[in-house]
Amino acid sequence: MDEKIITVDVLYAPIVVIESKTWEAEERSMVSIRCNVTSNPPPITIEWFKEGNPDIRYTGDILQLQDVRAEHAGRYICRAVNRMKPYKGKIVERAGNSTVALLVRHRPGQAFINPNKPVVHVGNGVTLTCSNDVSATNASMNLRIEHGPIVVHQYNKVAYEINEKADIVCRVQAFPKPEFQWQLGTNTAVLSSDGHYEINTSTDNNDIYTSVLRINCVNHEDYGDYNCRVRNPIDTIRISVRLQPKGPPEKPTNLAAADVGSNYVSLIWDPGFDGGITNTKFFVFFRKVAISQHGQAIDDCIITQQVSSEWIEYDCQRNVPCSVTPLDPMEALLGQYLSQRCK
Known about the structure:
By secondary structure, this protein is mostly beta strands. The protein has no helices and 26 strands.
C-alpha cells in the first residue's frame, strides 16, 4: 500500500491573551505589559490604544509607560491583525483583541471646589465642581437649610362682615415641617374643626406652609386677635392676625419715584391693608410748580410765577407701579402724596 503525507495549513485569526485583566502600578514607576498573540499567518500589526482616548496609541506587543502618572490610569486594548488567503480565495483581514485595566496608586493631590463660597437662597439648588490635578466633576443638589418658621404672608389683618364666611391665613416658610395651632385672644384653648371652625394646612415645593382658619358664619364674638402658633424642632413663633369688620383702607407707605421721563413719572409704594374690600383703587395727588434754569424746583416763598396752586388728582386704578402722564417737561411735581380708596 502506498502512503502519502499531506500538510494542512490551518489559517486562523489572531488570539490575543494578556496575563492579567488588571495591572497595578505606583506613581512615578515604569509599566511593561506584554500582549501574547498567536495566529496563522503571523500578525501584520500589533498595537495598543487607550479606551476613550483613540489619540493615545502604542505600536508593538509590549505596552511600556515611563514615569507613570495618575492620568495614565484607564483601560488599554491590545489589538492584533493578520491577513489570510484561503486556497483559491481572496485576501481577508482578521483581528483579535484583549483588554487590561491599569490602576495607578497615587496621592490625592490638592482638590478645589468651585465656587469656594457658594451662596444659595433657601429652597434653591446649588451646583459645585470638584477638581484636582487629574480631572474635574460636578454635582447638583438641593440645599435645604434647617431653620425656624419665617412669616411670609403680607398682612396681619382680615376684614369680614357678620354672617360672612371668613378665612384667616397664617403662612410661613420653615424646614423641617412645622405644626400649627390656633387660639382666640387670651383664651389658651386650642381651636379645632368643630363645625364653626375649619382648619386646613397645605404646602408647596418651596417649604411654604399655609394654615387657613375658616369661620363658617362670623358673629360679633368672632372679632378679635387670633394667635397662630407655629412650631418646628428649630423654633416656635406666634403670629397675631386680627379679624375686624370691613372698613376704609389704610394709607399706603414708602411712596417713591421708580422712573422719571421727559413727560412722565413712574411711582411705586407699599399698599396698605385694603379694609377687606377688594375693589380698592389708588389716587396720586400733586401740583405743578415752576423750575429754575438749573432744573430745581423754586421755593414757594420766591416763586415769581405760580404755575398751578391746585392739587391735581390722578387715578392710578389698581396699578402699582403707576405712571403719571402726560406732564409738562418744564414743570416739577411738588408735594406728591397718595391715597387708597374704595370705589
